[in-house]
Amino acid sequence: MNAQDYARFVSHVYWDRKERFALERDLYPHWTMFAVQDGRFVYAIADDEGEAGFGDLVICPPHTSFHRRTVSPLSFHFLHFGLDTEGHESLRPGEELRLTGKISLADTERLSSDLRYLKLLASERDRSAQAHKQHLLNDLLRLASLEQAYLKAPVPAGIPPELQQAHQFMTAHAYAPLSMRNLADSLALSPVQLTRRFRAAYGLTPSEFVTELRLSRACRLLEETTLSIDKIASRCGYENGFYLSRVFRHKRGMTPSFYRKTHRV
């Protein structure tokens, strides 16, 4: 069963360029979603913590401590919803659907469309607007469910658990500052061991793997949006457009601007 089949919209607020949260920690009686439109923030939900920006949904279960702190002025959608599992006793919300924590979405074009409509409806409270918001919430959850079910790469046979963990961690945190030394330490490996073993398992070093994730997102944003190079850089884990351009040219053989010009239809 998919999330969109039983998610029940409760409330929605849109915050534009919020400098800081009023509370760095809170508990909510409903499921809570932060859908970032611009900016970045760090979060901690139970044992899951990280940094999120555009392309990410961060979801917290009811009655669970939600720690958060803005990294840069944050524009985001703040949604509450319920999960109606009546008649579906075998379903345990947030486990099979992997709803808790950060979900990074690949289909940024569809995500942008949903967030744009949510922003247009932000101040509306009538029955029609509530129905539209219900649909858009469900579409976000449908997108997350589809990508989790069909876009997750299968684990090659024989990959040690600690390297699978490294792969999953880097996939989830590729678009935020990422310390390979800290990752290696968490796996009880030295950076050299992590690099050597990861390359033997996946054919890329950890740094090369993260770079490919970042450049793949950059390519999608160049193709699908009119965002500036600096904006795209910030959404792909780079400090600025100059650094993104240097990496992009080295790996793709052309500048981001030329890529955009030749790949837009």
Topology, please?
Elements: E1 7-18, E2 25-26, E3 31-38, E4 41-45, E5 48-52, E6 56-60, E7 66-70, E8 74-83, E9 101-104, H1 108-120, H2 127-150, H3 161-173, H4 180-186, H5 191-202, H6 206-224, H7 229-235, H8 241-252, H9 256-263
Antiparallel strand pairs: 1-8, 2-7, 3-6, 3-8, 4-5, 4-7, 6-9
Helix pairs in contact: 1-2, 3-6, 6-7, 6-9, 7-8
Keywords: DNA-binding, Transcription, Transcription regulation
Protein name: Helix-turn-helix domain-containing protein
InterPro entries: Homeodomain-like_sf, HTH-like, HTH_AraC, HTH_AraC-typ_CS
Structure description:
The protein has helices at residues 108-120, 127-150, 161-173, 180-186, 191-202, 206-224, 229-235, 241-252, 256-263, and strands at 7-18, 25-26, 31-38, 41-45, 48-52, 56-60, 66-70, 74-83, 101-104. With 265 residues, it is an alpha+beta fold. The chain folds into two domains: 3-150, Jelly Rolls; 161-263, Homeodomain-like (Arc Repressor Mutant, subunit A), CATH 1.10.10. Residues 86-96 have low confidence and may be disordered. Helix 3 (161-173) packs parallel to helix 6, helix 6 (206-224) crosses helix 7 (229-235) and helix 6 crosses helix 9 (256-263). The two termini are 37 Å apart. It has nine helices and nine strands. Strand 4 (41-45) and strand 5 form a beta hairpin. The longest helix is centred in the middle third of the chain and has 24 residues, at 127-150. A five-stranded antiparallel β-sheet has the order 1-8-3-6-9, with helices on one face. Residues 164-262 form the HTH araC/xylS-type domain. InterPro entries: Homeodomain-like_sf (IPR009057), HTH-like (IPR037923), HTH_AraC (IPR018060), HTH_AraC-typ_CS (IPR018062). Keywords: DNA-binding, Transcription, Transcription regulation. This is Helix-turn-helix domain-containing protein.
